[in-house]
Amino acid sequence: MCRFYAHTHPCGHTNMVFAAYCSEAAMVQRQCIGGEIWQTLTMDDACGECVIENAPATQRPARTGKGKKNTKTR
Predict the structure, then answer these.
(1) Model confidence over 40-58: pLDDT tens digits?
(2) Contact by Cβ (8 Å): 43, 10
(3) Is 5 exposed, middle or buried (0-12, 13-18, 19+ CB in 10 A)?
(4) What's residue 63's pLDDT?
(5) pLDDT tens per residue, range 5-35
(6) C-beta separation of 39 from 6 below 8 A
(7) In angstroms, what CA-CA distances link 19 with 1, 10, 28, 34?
(8) Helix (H, G, I), strand (E, B) or coil at 63
(9) CA–CA–CA angle 55, 18, 14 (5° rounding)
(10) C-alpha pair distances (Å), 58 with each of 27, 49, 52, 53, 61
(11) Which of 40, 50, 68, 73 has CA atoms 20 to 30 A from the CA of 34?
(12) What pLDDT score was predicted for residue 74?
């Protein structure tokens, strides 16, 4: 099984980050599904999702793609 780092944030979210291939996956350079947590690291900051949600509207990234409101004036 491939190895991953688990980044735990104070907001409660955990992100899995690829660390190393297992011997079987190394042959094809494709990581396993699932895997083994090699090490858990405690992060000092909230995750990216929580930072964007809690940011003031002026600092949030613009939404693009489907669902974008029509901003043309008549």
Answers:
(1) 999 888 887 776 666 554 5
(2) yes
(3) middle
(4) 56
(5) 999 988 888 888 888 888 888 878 888 777 8
(6) yes
(7) 11, 22, 16, 13
(8) coil
(9) 40
(10) 47, 16, 11, 12, 8
(11) 50
(12) 47
**What domains appear along the chain, each with residue ranges and CATH number?**
3-58 (3.30.1490)
Residue with tokens 């090490």: 39
- CA distances 61 to 42, 48, 56, 66, Å, are 26, 12, 10, 15
List of long-range contacts for 44-51, beta carbons under 8 Å, 24+ apart: 44/10, 45/9, 45/10, 46/9, 46/10, 46/11, 46/13, 47/9, 47/11, 47/13, 47/15, 49/13, 50/9, 50/11, 50/13
